[in-house]
Amino acid sequence: MSKKVLFVLTSRNQYDDGSQTGLWLEEASEPYRILAEANITVDLVSIDGGAVPIDANSTQNGELEQYSDFVDKINDVPSIKTVNVDNYDAIYLPGGHGTVFDFGHNQELATVIAEFKEQNKFISSVCHGPSAFVGAKDKNGNFIVKDVTLTAFTDEEERAMGLENKVPFLTQSELENQGAKFVTKDNFVSHVEQDGLFITGQNPQSSIAIGETLRDALTQ
């Protein structure tokens, strides 16, 4: 039986000031490619369904052409409301700044993630994708990431981008406040942490490494 992974993508296309954002394309496309090449089935959903917005900053070097097959697949996707966790072996949450607006403090998404954890299934995410864990609790009322070793886009990286005042929260700080054991490495270098069911990557440069780590976890 082929393994199956659920990708959850952002539906948010702008910051509060109206400037454009969305999905960081590489963070979804590279893991999708790696899993597909390993004959692992991937289903794509987004928070609201429909067309997934792509952050234009992630398409400055020909990525729309490089990942054209994936781009075609996200023109119209189901919403997270359609998800049955029983059908999957893992969830993957790529980033892009859109996610800090519609992943964080999202009870519907938090419930899905909690079900993956309860069923002992892999929970993987990269860059701003772990904003999905912000505010997320299990059925016992404990933060899902309490005592979990993980990483995500760091506060220092956010400041290096000059975006610390455009986001509703700093992902690292919020996860640390929830009891996560947050590990940082140098800015903008590939870095993946695995702690039991949790597989997390720090930044876009970690896209290939997290795809490979998730693939290996599912196939070993």
From TrEMBL:
Its EC number is 4.2.1.130. Residues 27-212 form the DJ-1/PfpI domain. The keyword Hydrolase applies. Keywords: Glutamine amidotransferase, Hydrolase, Lyase, Protease, Stress response. GO terms for biological process: methylglyoxal catabolic process to D-lactate via S-lactoyl-glutathione; proteolysis. One of its GO terms (molecular function) is glyoxalase III activity. It comes from the Bacteria. It is an enzyme of class 4 (lyase). Pfam families: DJ-1_PfpI. GO terms for cellular component: cytoplasm. Belongs to the peptidase C56 family. HSP31-like subfamily. This is Glutamine amidotransferase.
